[in-house]
Amino acid sequence: MNEVTSFGDRLSQTFARFGQLCVGIDPHSWLLADWNLPDTADGAESFGRTVVAAAAGQAGIVKPQVAFYERFGSAGFIALERVLADARAAGLLVIGDAKRGDLGTSVEAYAEAWLTPGSPLEVDALTVSGYMGVGSLDSAIAIARRAGKGLFLLGATSNPEGAALQRATVGEGAYAGATVARAILDDIAERNAQSDSGALGSLGVVLGATVDLAGFGIDVHAAPTSALTPVLAPGFGHQGAQLAAVNTIFGGYAPGVILSESRSILSAGPDRITKAIQHKVEEAGSARG
Ligand SMILES: O=c1ccn([C@@H]2O[C@H](COP(=O)(O)O)[C@@H](O)[C@H]2O)c(=O)[nH]1
Question: What are the C-alpha distances in Å from 136 to residues 140, 169, 191?
Answer without folding.
Answer: 9, 19, 14
